[in-house]
């Protein structure tokens, strides 16, 4: 008996049209075709999806928690990016 | 936070972070603060080794329980007495395989692969819930498992949906949602038997007699003897003590048993007006420890079947891997 | 044409689905990899769903499933064959799901009483065939061992495949056309899987007939004994 560990795939499911794919979990499969089938059987047994992506887990590059501050904090002090930053006189519509 | 955890890099990052920066104390403060603030710990966050080890152990045991737990119920798929019941049972056993997969996938985010965990299960180095070392002798046992065993599991699991480790909590949310039908089908099955013929009623009562006490044992040893409880509570992996959950379960079951027209096999079971809870008899902890040690009626049978299925499937897994190696590149990731 | 349901046809199709579903259900807890536990159960559940609709067209589903004697079952001998190893299960799936897809596609396009069921089932069956094909390719073109096993399985079940195209009373279909398509499809899939198309006869030599006439193989009696035992032990009980 050999030990051929099937690689890990991350699964993303679009729950209905109009929504984006969301991470659902992961699974093992020897290749993309079976990964897609396995994802369908595992993550959409109750009609949870209309479309699936499978991505080799090894292919994902993620930001590191150590870089959290340089990555995300600079975005927190720019309130002028949000509509609530601006004062509009009462009664002005469609803005 | 990245939505998708790349598990492999998570492992090297976690290690890398510790050696590169070296200021463990600072990481530890951040971790403690996150737990205290009821935030979730995510795969690539720094975490104490013991927290990681505890989670791997607990999630693995939980996953193994789902997989081994398929066996006692699958035992009745081919004999289910109506097509409706057969469909329900097949769907339920299938869910258990699915839940095992969700959980192995959660454990994997901590850097321990499924193959390694399965090896540990097969070699007896990791456990599964002892309840599955009891046999399903009659059809009514399928109902008793649904009502009592799944009921106890749900009581245990609902608080885990708020567990401090994100992937585990998310897996549990999914599992709890799917499991809500498991308990109801068991209850409905027992109700049909209880209200059925005399033989059917007796079958249901017999099943409840055999499953009641082992179900109470599912909450683990009493609080003062529980090895891992205190630390797990502090880390918010666990939210309630074994005895608290056990009491909650008993209080839930008593009126349900009455509606079923079945008796719970405990002469000491009665309402305590003062505590506003039920008193119940003493659990036979000798049996619990013996079954845990391997001396239950089915320990050997369950693990042997699991090992055999795995060993007999090796050539299939090898074939698929060999095919993938030959054909890589022909089939890219597909979108739909 | 309104719905007088041809009972023979409903039983033939319903029994096929019921019996194969039961066989696939036997895999629970024994599959070669956890992902296949889920996949095989999905297929079994689809088939059981089809069986329940079809048997209900012919009578009471539970009476028909649990109280008929072996000789009253009208399923193909192919679907009652034991699971064997995973290769044998996949070969059985490939043969049957390809046939079922062809037949249900025809029925879905007809205006007969089976059209609504067939229209729904044809989508399920397409997935079953896809599953069987993917695995046929992997087992055939995987390792030496897997090719040997898959080839042996294809050979062993080949003699049960002729029966599929025996016309069924009440089903208006182009049986000869379906058979030709089925053979083309087998040549294609097995070829891509680097497997040889079996050369042996596609029917048994016994002139008494086969499953559609109520004549079954030895494993079937045991299967029914297990399936019906509990139900029959409690006459009149409801579950």
Automatic annotation (TrEMBL), chain A:
Task: Specify the superkingdom.
Answer: Bacteria
Q: What is this protein called?
A: 1,2-phenylacetyl-CoA epoxidase subunit B
TrEMBL record, chain B:
Q: Name one GO molecular function term.
A: phenylacetyl-CoA 1,2-epoxidase activity
Supply the InterPro entries for this chain.
Answer: Aromatic_CoA_ox/epox, Ferritin-like, Ferritin-like_SF, PaaA, PaaA_PaaC
* Gene Ontology cellular component annotations, sorted alphabetically: cytosol
So which domain of life are we looking at? Bacteria
**GO BP, sorted A to Z:** phenylacetate catabolic process
**PANTHER family hit by this protein:** 1,2-PHENYLACETYL-COA EPOXIDASE, SUBUNIT A (PTHR30458:SF2), PHENYLACETIC ACID DEGRADATION PROTEIN PAA (PTHR30458)
Could you identify this protein by its name? 1,2-phenylacetyl-CoA epoxidase subunit A
Protein's organism: Streptomyces diastatochromogenes
From TrEMBL, chain C:
Concerning InterPro entries, the annotation shows:
Aromatic_CoA_ox/epox, Ferritin-like, Ferritin-like_SF, PaaA_PaaC, PaaC
- Pfam families in the record, alphabetically? PaaA_PaaC
Alphabetized SUPFAM superfamilies for the sequence = Ferritin-like
Extract the Gene3D superfamilies matched here.
1.20.1260.10
One GO cellular component term noted in the UniProt record for this chain: cytosol
Q: Which GO terms describe its biological process?
A: phenylacetate catabolic process
PANTHER family recorded: 1,2-PHENYLACETYL-COA EPOXIDASE, SUBUNIT C, PHENYLACETIC ACID DEGRADATION PROTEIN PAA
Q: What is this protein called?
A: Phenylacetate-CoA oxygenase subunit PaaI
Organism, scientific name:
Streptomyces diastatochromogenes
């Amino acid at each position: 008996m050999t030990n051929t560990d099937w690689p890990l795939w991350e699964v993303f499911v679009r729950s209905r049209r109009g929504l984006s794919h969301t991470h659902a979990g992961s699974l093992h499969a020897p290749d993309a075709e079976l990964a897609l089938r396995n994802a369908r059987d595992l993550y959409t047994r109750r009609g949870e999806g209309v479309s699936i992506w499978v991505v080799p887990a090894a292919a994902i590059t993620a930001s590191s928690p150590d870089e959290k501050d340089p990555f995300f904090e600079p975005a927190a002090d720019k309130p002028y990016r949000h509509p609530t930053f601006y004062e509009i006189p009462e009664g002005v519509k469609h803005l | 936070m990245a939505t998708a955890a790349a598990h492999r890099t998570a492992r090297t990052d976690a290690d890398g972070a510790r050696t590169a920066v070296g200021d463990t104390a600072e990481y530890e403060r951040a971790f403690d603060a996150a737990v205290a603030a009821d935030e979730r710990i995510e795969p690539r966050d720094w975490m104490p080794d013991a927290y990681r080890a505890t989670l791997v152990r607990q999630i693995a045991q939980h996953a193994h329980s789902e997989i081994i737990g398929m066996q006692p119920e699958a035992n009745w798929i081919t004999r289910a007495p109506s097509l409706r019941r057969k469909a329900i049972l097949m769907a339920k056993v299938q869910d258990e395989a699915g839940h095992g997969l969700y959980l192995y996938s959660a454990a994997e985010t901590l850097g321990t692969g499924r193959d390694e965990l399965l090896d540990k299960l097969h070699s007896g180095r990791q456990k599964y819930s002892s309840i599955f070392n009891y046999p399903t002798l009659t059809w009514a046992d399928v109902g008793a498992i649904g009502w009592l065993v799944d009921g106890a599991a749900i009581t245990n699991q609902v608080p885990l949906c708020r567990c401090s480790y994100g992937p585990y909590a998310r897996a549990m949310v999914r599992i709890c949602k799917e499991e809500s039908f498991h308990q109801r089908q068991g209850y409905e099955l027992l109700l049909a038997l209880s209200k059925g013929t005399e033989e059917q009623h007796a079958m249901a009562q017999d099943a409840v007699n055999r499953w009641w006490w082992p179900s109470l044992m599912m909450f683990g040893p009493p609080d003062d003897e529980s090895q891992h409880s205190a630390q797990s509570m502090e880390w918010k992996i666990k939210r309630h003590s074994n005895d608290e959950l056990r009491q909650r379960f008993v209080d839930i079951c008593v009126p349900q048993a009455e509606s079923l027209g079945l008796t719970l096999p405990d002469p000491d079971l009665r309402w305590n007006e003062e505590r506003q809870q039920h008193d119940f008899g003493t659990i036979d902890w000798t049996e619990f420890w013996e079954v845990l040690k391997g001396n239950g009626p089915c320990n050997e049978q369950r693990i042997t079947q699991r090992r055999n299925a795995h060993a007999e499937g090796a050539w299939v897994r090898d074939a698929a891997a060999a095919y993938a190696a030959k054909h890589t590149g022909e089939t890219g990731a597909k979108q739909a | 044409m309104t719905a007088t349901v041809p009972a023979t046809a409903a039983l033939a199709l319903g029994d096929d689905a019921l019996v194969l579903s039961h066989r696939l259900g036997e895999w629970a807890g024994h599959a070669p990899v956890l992902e296949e536990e889920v996949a095989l159960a999905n297929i079994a559940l689809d088939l059981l769903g089809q069986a329940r609709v079809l048997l209900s067209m012919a009578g009471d589903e539970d009476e028909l499933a649990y109280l008929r004697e072996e000789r009253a079952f009208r399923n193909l001998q192919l679907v009652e064959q034991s699971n064997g190893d995973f290769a044998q299960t996949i070969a059985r799936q490939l043969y049957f799901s390809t046939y079922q897809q062809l037949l249900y596609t025809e029925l879905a396009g007809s205006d007969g009483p089976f059209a609504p069921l067939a229209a729904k089932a044809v989508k399920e069956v397409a997935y079953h065939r896809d599953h069987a094909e993917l695995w046929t390719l992997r087992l055939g073109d995987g390792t030496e061992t897997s090719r040997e096993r898959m080839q042996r399985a294809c050979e062993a079940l080949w003699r049960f495949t002729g029966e599929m195209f025996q016309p069924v009373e009440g089903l208006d279909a182009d049986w000869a056309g379906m058979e030709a398509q089925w053979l083309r499809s087998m040549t294609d899939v097995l070829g891509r899987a680097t497997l040889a198309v079996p050369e042996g006869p596609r029917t048994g030599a016994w002139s008494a007939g086969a499953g559609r006439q109520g004549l079954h193989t030895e494993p079937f009696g045991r299967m029914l004994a297990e399936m019906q035992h509990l139900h029959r032990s409690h006459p009149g009980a409801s579950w």
